[in-house]
Amino acid sequence: MELNQDVQYIKGVGPAKVKLLNNLGIYTLEDLITYYPRDYEDRGKPRKIEDLQDGEEALIKAFPASRFHVINAKRNMKICKLLVRDETGTIEIVWYNQAYLKDKFIGGKEYSFYGKVSKKTGIITMNSPVFDSENETKNTGKIIPIYPSTYKLSQNVLRQIIENGLKMIDGKLQEIIPEKILREYRLIGINEATNKIHFPKDFSEFKEARQRLAFEELLTMQLLLNNLKSKTISAHNGIQFDKNVKMSDVINSLPFRLTKAQLRVLEEIDRDMESDKIMNRLLQGDVGSGKTIVAIISAYKAVKSGYQMAIMAPTSILATQHLESFTNVLEPFGIRCELLISNMTKKKKEEVIEKLKNGEIDVLVGTHSILEENIVFKNLGLVVTDEQHRFGVNQRSIMSSKGKNVDTIVMTATPIPRTLGLILYGDLDISSIDELPPDRKKIETYAVTKGMEERINNFIKKHIKEGRQCYIVCPLVEENEEINAKSVMEMVEIYKNQVFTEFRVEYIYGKMKQKEKDQIMQEFKEGKIDILISTTVIEVGVNVPNASIMVIQNAERFGLATLHQLRGRVGRGEYQSYCILKYQGHTDTIIQRMKVMQDTNDGFVISEKDLELRGTGDFFGTKQHGLPEFKVANLFEDMDILKQVQIVANEISINDPNLKKEENQKLKTMINKRFSGKIEI
Ligand code: ADP
Ligand code: MG
Q: I want to staple 54 with a disulfide (CB 3.0 to 4.6 A). Which of 119, 125, 518, 595 is the partner?
């Protein structure tokens, strides 16, 4: 039995079905048996006809009480009806276009039917039920798995194929979790779990199966992460930064007063930095809450204690801007800050590399380029990652490995739930900046549908004439026939050549050359461009305090988190700022989402609403954290399993850090397989 054999060899799978399975992402026997149900229907407990309620799905056991008759309703529609009864009542069964069922039912024999009940004006019917004859349990009499998507396969057919696949496996899946862990945590074996996740006899079997499979998923992930962090597992050998270096020296030199929240967070960081514990801190704070200055002050502490500091940002525009902020504050203290991004001259880059190695640079501000192997520090002590959700886990750990026992701060405007935080950072401490600087004006947000074009354009004109600038954001770069949404190019045509001919209109999108993007952003920053039309590339970005209007086209196409991030590009200066959300569609969800954006500027409230309105979705998705998706485990609900897993994983990591022992070999293979191409142990 080969797990990677093609699905075509499974009983019941011909060429046509191979295609349909492929459409579901199922190519091999393994794909098939790990295509887990999304839900189950309990078709095990029969109900009495007199107890049935309108709208419910139910199982009944009943005898035919009429002949099977077929009514030609319309040209292509045959309605088939059969009355059945049990000792409590009679119900009418209805099928559509299934006249071939005619000879299936024999008077005096009992059948099981499972389907949706409808009860209207005294007539009780069951529509298109599945059924079994006496002693048959193909469709009823048990718990039936419901698969996430079956495309053009029916649930019944897919279920049968999976059953055949499991028969081929015949209990021969390899166990990867060491025997003693299975015993200690009362986990069932992999074969039992696989069978039971598809075909549980009852709820407790499902729970056992799920527990085991989620445990395995979380364990492999945790082991991988432990391995990435192995150098920092013994946490009490961190750098003790100098107690005599006072953050207040920088704080007092600033042109503004820090908020209470910023001060509290700095105290937390200061304490961590002075202690021998390796700091691993997540700094979360809404857009505009002032995270950068916290990083700058922490850098001061590190540098004045004799170490180098590095901060990594996701784009070169942002890195360039950070360099400016760092230099402004730190240069007066004799701290040397430098930039490292990909589009620098070779000569300049070599100079930076050289100086960094010699310790002639104190603070390095850069992009992913910092991760390159030839970037070597003399004495790195503190690493900060900005907009951390843009980086993978492994990138962060490469960064830390450039120093010895370095302290780490990751900054994000995207609130991370506790569970995900635990997985991503292990023993992570969280600091929150939960207040904005006092002088901020609320960004006025208006959600509008069609017919406001003229007014919006006049509004923009008025503000540009007063000296302000404007962002226009579109979901697409170019027009697309299949997607009914505005594109950057379409807006350029309209705005540049028709509506705003007297202003300078430019555009920017992700796939443009980096050099061009930087050029455009620079000119926008300098006020040379009045209107900037873009995709979401500006989501993470620069500070242009003079920009006071943002118009988002087809706002219904963006997640709330993205809308919030985008909106954070305006309202960064002294001017009253505006965000206009143009949307299409009238569904409740769209309207509610727009309302949330109108009503609040608070990122935490928005993220909660986002969760509420569309489930966990991709907002907190593991994907954007560089992790693969889980098939079974749920980061929000499996906290208990996660805690167990962390104990187990830490034990394994301490006893066998590189998974060399025989008992852990299969785990290691599984980890490399699951994360192949991404990260390897
Ligand atoms: P974010 O948290 O989104 O990264 P930034 O660090 O870019 O926010 O800060 C946004 C702006 O607010 C910057 O121009 C910064 O100088 C300014 N700022 C930060 N803290 C304060 C404060 N306490 N009072 C006034 N302005 C502040
Ligand atoms: Mg920022």
A: 119
Nearest-CA residue for atom 17 of ligand 1: 290
Question: CA dihedral in degrees (226, 232, 235, 238; nearest 10)?
Answer: -170
Structure confidence by residue, pLDDT tens digits, 229-259: 654 445 678 899 999 999 999 999 999 999 9
Could you list the beta-strand ranges (E) of 180-328: 280-285, 308-312
| Ligand 1, pocket residues at CB < 6 Å | 256-259, 262, 285, 287-293, 413, 437, 543, 572
165 by Cβ neighbours in 10 Å (0-12 / 13-18 / 19+) ranks as buried
pLDDT digits (tens, 9 = 90+) for 460-505: 999 999 999 999 999 888 777 667 778 899 899 999 989 999 999 9
Q: Which of 293, 320, 546 to mutate to test the pocket of ligand 1 (most atoms within 8 A of CB)?
A: 293
Whether 283 and 409 have beta carbons less than 8 Å apart is answered as yes
What is the rounded (10 degree) CA torsion for 635, 639, 640, 643? Answer: 100
> Relative to the CA of 287, which ligand 1 atom is closest?
3
pTM: 0.63
pLDDT in tens, 269-312: 999 999 998 898 889 888 888 999 999 999 999 999 999 999 99
Q: Is 359 left (phi over 0), alpha (psi -120 to 50) or beta?
A: left
Cα(414)–Cα(607) distance, integer angstroms: 8
Identify whether the C-beta of residue 410 lies closer than 8 Å to the C-beta of residue 396.
yes
Nearest CA to ligand 1 atom 19: 290
Comparing C-alpha atoms, which of 272, 289, 196, 271 is closest to residue 235? 272
Beta strand residue intervals within 439-482, DSSP E: 444-448, 469-473
Measured distance CA(113)–CA(141) in Å, rounded:
10
Ligand 1, residue 325: give the atom nearest the CA: 16
Q: Which residues contact 606 (CB under 8 A, 6 or more apart)?
A: 560, 561, 564, 596, 597, 600
| Ligand nearest to the Cα of 569, by number | 1
Of 477, 319, 312, which Cα lies nearest the Cα of 389? 312
How many helical (H) and strand (E) elements, i.e. helices and strands, does the chain have? Answer: 21, 22
CA–centroid distance, 666 to ligand 1, in Å, is 49
Q: Which ligand is nearest to the CA of 313?
A: 2
Residue 520 C-alpha to ligand 2 middle, in angstroms? Answer: 20
| Token pair in block for residue 146 | 């419901």
Which two structure tokens, joined as six digits, stand for 451? 């017919």
* Tokens matching residue 346: 């070779």
